Amino acid sequence: MNMNVEGKRVLVCGMARSGIAAAKLLISLGACVTITDTKPEGEFGGALDELRTPECTFALGQSADGLIAGQDIMVISPGIAWAKPFVQNAIAQGVEVMGELELGARLTKGALVAITGTNGKTTTTTLVGELFRATGRTTHVVGNIGHPITATAGISKQDDVTVAEVSSYQCEGISQFHPHVGAVLNITEDHIVRHGSMAVYIAMKRRIFDRQTAQDIAVFNYDDATCREMAKGLKAQVAWFSRREKVPFGAYVEDQHIVLKLGEGERRVCRCDEVYIPGPHNLENALAAVTIAGVMGVPCETMREVLKTFRGVEHRIETVRELDGVTWINDSKGTNVDSTQKAIATMNRPTVLILGGSDKKVSFDPLAKSIVEAPLIEHCVLIGDTANQIKDALDRAGYSASPVNADTGAAGSSGSAQARSGAAHMESPTKKLEAAASAMRTRLIISIVFLVPLFYIGMGHMLGWPLPGIFTDHTHSMTLALTELVLLIPIVYVNDAYFINGFKSLAHGAPTMDALIAVGATASIAWSLYAMFIMADQLAAGQVHEAMMTSMDNLYFESAGTILSLVTVGKYLETRSKSKTGGAIEALIDLAPKTATVVAEDGSEATVDVDAILPGQVLRVRPGESIPVDGVVLEGSSAVDESALTGESIPVEKTAGDTVNAATVNRTGSFTFRATRVGADTSLAKIIQLVEDANATKAPIARMADKVAGVFVPVVFVISAMTFVAWMALTGSVNEALTSAVAVLVISCPCALGLATPVAIMVGNGMGARNGIMFKTAVSLEETGKMQIVALDKTGTITSGEPKVTDIIPAAGVTEDTLLKCAYALENKSEHPLARAILEKAKEENAGIEEVTGFQALPGNGLTAILDGHTLYGGNHTFISSKVSVDGDMQKKAEKLAEAGKTPLFFGNEDRLLGVIAVADVIKEDSPQAIKELQNMGIHVVMLTGDNERTAKAIGQQAGVDEVIAGVLPEGKEQVICKLKEKGKVAMVGDGINDAPALTRADMGIAIGAGTDVAIDAADVVLMKSRLSDVPAAIRMSRATLRNIHENLFWAFFYNIIGIPLAAGVWYPLFGWKLNPMFGAAAMSLSSFCVVSNALRLNLFKMYDASKDKKLKAKKEKKRSKKEDKTMKKIMHIEGMMCGHCEAAVKKALEALPQVDEAVVSHEAGTAELTLNAEIADDVLKKTVEDKDYTVTSVE
User: Fold this and answer.
1) Is 611 a catalytic residue?
2) Cα–Cα dist 336/597, whole Å
């Protein structure tokens, strides 16, 4: 389609959004425009200021009748009915009358897709746009949710695609409208008010196909009888979509899959439950989009990925958040009764509905009835123009409701209410974690305060420590016992969680470490209380000496206190480290500014809270300011530092039409941009969500203690029971049998077992800290050495992260000194980050500075200035070649520099090219050696970066990595880590905010200390010296510590192997040996001494010595795989999961069970696939999930 309007006189009627865009387009194409509207000029504020040009005449506040004479074309907005007398008068006078849709379509270049129907137009149009964008094709989405088609027609190109949402009102104004693909989604009576009858309404919709030919495509809903009638007699090829039938050409549902058939073969696009937006109506929208995209050549793989992530249209049945098990759905853009009813029918979780918005002149009674009958709708929030209408309908249906107003603080105008519901303010998630750490610290302090005197009194007489006379006098033995009991009570009280959780795990048949602690401590306390009753009886009988001996031999209160306190030390350290991970999210939130500058339609500026920004508003950003939300640049240009999100070390030039993201920093110029994504939809918010999700789904690694407890506790119980039976049979004395049985339980308390790992971790951590390697948790020190794959971020990790001058190539007849001096003089006035690299180089070379005049920066191109009467130029090849001649040899050298990952900057004067200076982010000196050491350890080294592929491959080749993955954004890095984890354990090394999700998702996150606080907080290991050589050193330290732990466990179990048989009296018949408290204390001390002494040997370990590095043995890998082959699998079918958060909650709960190695949870499939290392009852699994408020339907 084409149209020449140059010199034509055009009357534009109706100055709404589409009318203003049409007038601007016509003026830009040389037309003489007259704008008219019945509203006076004063009501438009500054909205029409852009139209104040010599080519545009204002005729506002009057009828268009008197303006028709002499006009060549009249363009009318969709809000004006063609039945109006002035429209018919213009047609009678021979004026070419068209709607803004017709005008825009005739001036649009590239393919045109038109989508119409009663319901689902906006969602389908937006989804089709996303499908095309995913292929890399420039796409313009126009209509109700996007820009008017007249706003994009002028910038469209031949290879572009424009996807237009078309209303029946717009169809009145088309005559030569010719889309390559036209689609009708459905036909109902919702929108027939203006047309008067269904026949006229259907005729309007069918007009989009009138100009189509046999080469075009018409898409219809096969399930809609009216659509089937509309398809008859068309010239275009008809494609169908259907939820119920298998269509011959198009998309349909088969075996719960979306299937696309466009020829002989059939292709499955995705499972129906993989479509993110819920409900049968949205499945219809997805089928329509698949059909349209399919006939336009979009690959099925691309469609699958988009359908799995497309969240719908903002404020159109949009799931905005899930809080405390309640889903919040925002349908406030203009509640569509039919679509909202369909959405209500699919709800399976408690829901809050936000309804209202623009008035579509429909009855809300059917919707009110659906709301009343839906048991899961907990509340309705009503806002906007239709709030009172919906309230009245709800009142009639018997549902109590009241509209939200500004006085409540919940919403003000429709706009502000939408901002609050859609922006999803980013709140800090760290408070709960910090509260948990604070509570654990309080528990620890109370435990230690009471343990010190308890331990002193309880063990003092054995170790020869001086004690008050009241505790050594035989007549006061009960005083000693009561004092110990009183000191123990606060310790037991503050640590009651061990008893609650431990006995619960015993009741479920899956004993954990808490069960071992609870059993040991309870046995100690129970036996000590029993001993006190014996002492009381002895004292009553006057047996003072016997009572004192009973207290010395049978009081274990200090053992119980010691166990509980030592375990609490470890728990405190664990909760403290967890609170640190929340700091990563808080640091991300702090990046975004709290306020923004909004530009009103009249050009005035106002500072507003970021949460109040709405999509579509225009904002201004000045140099040095952070960008508040995502958007598209309208006017101005600048270099934007995107390193926070992409990791790109070199700022990116932004001009009109380019996208900008929240939390990136504007470095140079001032510009205005239109907000496109705000609140929870911004790139920053999505990264925060990724970090939260990764934290929630990170599996607990160090479960050895619980696995030991799962076997050890039942074994101890069996040994204790056998001991009781054996002693009863041999002696017939209940007291002897009970003494020996309880002694087994007491001596099995995990004192040495509890020390084995923490002490080695403590020494290993201290050794790492002295060398600038900070292991943030015990798990990180244990697991770092097990890594098989190391993924390295490029910028700031392998490279320095700052641009440096790498090459100076003067042109023939020019010296390096001359080139550098000219570049120095020119760049000294520039604010561009690359200029700093040249300035630093010039200072290093002591180049003299010469002042220039007439300096100009041309963003995206280069610089100009005058030096000694001669003009200097600097910039990219395109800019310089337009000023001076660049010979082929110099151009080839520049291309080689670019291939090596460097940025060539050209400099010249008015006569000739002076030369090229290359700037690049250079590799750190120790990077290649560190990577080689990792490879010598048998570790596969991968480089991940958001940089372009050419730069990444050049850096990767110089560094010597095994694999390079380039061009990945934050969510992409996280996905790559997930894929790498399928091949083995993965460590991610990074320094930027963009690395935070990947650092958290990896088995081990390692942060460079010179990086951002976000990366450091999200990581498990921090390299304070920012040297890559510390990565192999950290792995060596971890491996040495792990070996040490295994040795310590030997000593811990050695104590139990000796102590338990002794307590059971195994050696009594042969040697007359029985458990003596003194011997037990000595054995425990000796075991602890061995553990501590062995751990101290780590201080002698040389972590930078690579001579003893070894690769992982293949035999071990084979053994592991055989073991994996023997693992058991179970599949749980779960109802109630709605999103990634639900998956994370279920995964975390299941993987906390020691018998579960891995839980792969899918909310789309409603399943949890379990990999087990031991048998576990289905009831235990079911209860674990149902405790999280989900329903388990079956376990296979």
Assistant:
1) no
2) 34
**Exposed/middle/buried for residue 139 (C-beta within 10 Å: 0-12, 13-18, 19+):** buried
**Catalytic residue chosen out of the listed positions 223, 224, 693, 793:** 793
Q: Given phi > 0 = left and psi -120 to 50 = alpha, else beta, which region is 603?
A: left
- The rounded distance, in Å, linking the Cα atoms of 309 and 681 is 13
**Contact criterion met (CB below 8 Å) for 150 and 129:** no
First to last CA, the chain: 60
Lowest mean pLDDT among 242-246, 516-520, 533-537, 1016-1020: 1016-1020
Among residues 1040, 1029, 1024, the alpha carbon closest in space to that of 934 is found at 1029
What is the pLDDT, as a whole number, of residue 859? Answer: 58
For 71, residues 6+ apart whose C-beta sits below 8 A from its C-beta are: 9, 10, 11, 34, 90, 95
Written as six digits, the tokens of 593 are 């500014």
CB burial class (10 A; 0-12, 13-18, 19+) of residue 113? buried
605 CB neighbour count, 10 Å cutoff:
12
Rounded Cα distance between 408 and 416, Å, is 13
- With left for phi above 0 and alpha for psi between -120 and 50, is residue 136 left, alpha or beta? left
pLDDT of residue 707 exceeding 80: no
Q: Tens digit of pLDDT for each residue in 494-530?
A: 999 889 888 887 876 767 667 777 887 888 788 889 8
Helix/strand number for the chain, H first, E second? 42, 44
Three state DSSP letters for 1004-1018: EEEEECCCCHHHHHH
Q: What strands, in cross-sheet order, belong to the sheet with 139-142?
A: 139-142, 161-165, 111-116, 181-184, 217-221, 237-242, 250-254, 257-261, 266-271
Alpha-carbon dihedral sign for residues 500, 501, 503, 508: positive
Helices (H), 926-1012: 927-936, 949-959, 970-980, 996-1001
pLDDT tens per residue, range 23-51: 999 998 999 999 999 888 877 777 788 88
- Confidence at 1008, pLDDT banded by 50, 70, 90: confident
| Rounded mean pLDDT, 864-877 | 88
**Per-residue model confidence (pLDDT) at position 411:** 31
Joined tokens for residue 1085: 């001390």
